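hi support,

uploading two proteins for the ticket. first:
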Amino acid sequence: MFKKLIALFVLCALHIVTPARADLKVDIVAGATNPISVAVQKFETVGNVRSRDAAMIRSVVESDLKSTGLFRIVGHDAFPEYVEMGKLPNFKSWSAIKTQVLVQAKLMAEPTGGYRLEFYVWDVDAQEQIEAQSLVASQKSARRMAHIMADAIYERLTGEIGYFDTQIVFITETGPVNFRTKRMAIMDQDGHGFRYLSDDKTFVMSPHFSPNMQTIVFLSYRDNDPMIWTLDLNTGQQRRLGQFGGMNFSPRWSPDGTKIALSLVKNGVTHIYEYDLENKTLRQLTFGGTINTSPSYSPDGKKMAFNSNQSGTQQIHVLDLETGNQSRITYGAGRYATPAWSPDGQFIAFTKMADNTFYVGIMNERGRNEKILAGGWFMEAPSWAPGSRRIVYYETEKADDDVERVSHIRSVDITGQNVYDIELPDGLNGLEPTWSPRLP
């Protein structure tokens, strides 16, 4: 199902890898006020290597780094020299064009028919090598090699977890506003590798990856019966989660992948339950006569954020799963919904509705230090990239009477800067995106 690398290991024999200097590090919180300038040389090729693959890998690495807003890619025409692998760069000449990081790479054909990619990363000002790796993969996985290479460079320069070697599962929409077809689809985080995961005969919603990336849980209206199903990404097999005696929706995986939280309607009341996949047992987590939905586990699995109207308006609450105690954490103007806990546990992303505008923002787990990242006519479903640096969400544009509404999948970093659309195939609207963990 997914492209798999044959091997991945660090190349240590050719050079000693030393830590990057502090002044080369990117300030993740402050944003890219002074982006690091990176020059990526043309790749050396050895053996039966397709030149278009070498050019593609280089282009993808540059595009990945540039998309963060943290790096400036040095134009190829400005390069002062070409440095062969194994030779020292002329650091003064690279410094003269204000290059801070130089990347060298070599793509070699393997006897098995695959590729070996070796690359070095140089700190120009310190005149030292700060990273050296070798990746081995099949030719069809060349694009994924590029993402892994970009992740390695990103991690070395930021100290944060990379997110380029990831995917996004989401819902596509086609057709008129009053009769739209919804299908589940998946793509790489940069929009490439798009493919459908469901047909156009069944209405589907709310897809989410399991922690090990093997299974997607989603809501299906198969046979007009809204129920939670799972999809095995390796086999394509779909299974209904269980019969719970009422409409169920908003499924979310626990961090260890052993449980699924869900919302279940019984006797006209919506509460959050937790389904144990091994024991096939259902445990009720919220109680009372109010609507409780949109569960999101904390990364340690000990707490759960959700939205509830128990205070009279839609707000976000946090439930302690060990004690059963819960507390309301949002008190700002407007309504709050769709909480999503960041992988590092520092933030909860949310959707906010106030003054006829929708917003996507973040706050800490106590509801403090609220920061709005984006606003518009309608936006929802924030989901975190690995490393907790970026959020993906969808935004629907307001439409005139005779114009179809258009929904975009967008990404924004935690500073509220560097917002961009993830390109979809022509004619498709994108909704309810969920970012995957790093690919296995």
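and the second one:
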Amino acid sequence: MARLYDSRKRILVTGGAGFIGSHLVDRLLEQGHDVLCADNLFTGSKRNIDQFHNHPRFEFMRHDVTFPLYVEVDEIYNLACPASPVHYQHDPVQTTKTSVHGAINVLGLAKRLGIRVFQASTSEVYGDPTVHPQTEAYWGNVNPIGPRSCYDEGKRCAETLFFDYHRQHQLDIKVARIFNTYGPRMHPADGRVVSNFIMQALRDEPITIFGDGSQTRSFCYVDDLVEGFLRLMATGPEITGPVNLGNPNEFTINELARTIVEMTGSKSEVVYLDLPQDDPRQRQPDISLAKQTLDWQPTIELEKGLGWTIDYFRALLPELVGNGSGNST
């Protein structure tokens, strides 16, 4: 039987060596929990969890969630899945399997143990939205056969599985839809707009913008996001989600590029390339539900968070060799 939720718990974080996962591990250890981090290191990195190597309450298990996990834990956070287009399009079949088979495996584990399980879903379930900003009630506008479908539809199917397990087996679930997130420990070559722009600016390389740069995104600093995770997980079983977690302040890609060039003192110039297929024109969360049910909203302004992220990449730069460019989101 699972222990009480206000006690010290043994918590499984799948994808715990990834960008967001490692920050979640930070917070859970700070709270005094035991953490089992499972990651196959496809996009995660041991660098992100090196600081936990000798921590008495941290354990790392190299594992692919498309295979069952046979462990004993009190809670599960399922963050396992490549989340940037460069990575999830590299092996789209495996991406879909990670979302779908991975969900089946963590749900099966949670059902066997009778424990709460959290799904890190995504704003990509909304596709290229025709509703703006996006509320949780919006069903989305997703191309089911495009190059982004492995991720978009994989995450949509994972949500379906979570809610079917909830209805059929009364499983205690929490589902968060994550909007664009940034911060230290992002992969420098993941193809996401913030990391790409910062790396290009620090190297005085051309800033590559796909399309005309008028498309919008909303950027949430990773610490704010993780706080949202913890608050959602601490709610009662009557609150399942999905809940949007992201920063509602909207910026154009052109504005982001100018801000990063100014903050880095870069000599980079902007170049424009063709917009990839199915790239969303607008992305902005309506976080009314998170405010109401979690008393949560982001607190870290974009320039402050970008400053910390630029410092991280600047320190990393001497270790890196040249990587390709691009700014898919």
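thanks. also noticed: Residues 92-113 form the longest helix (22 residues).
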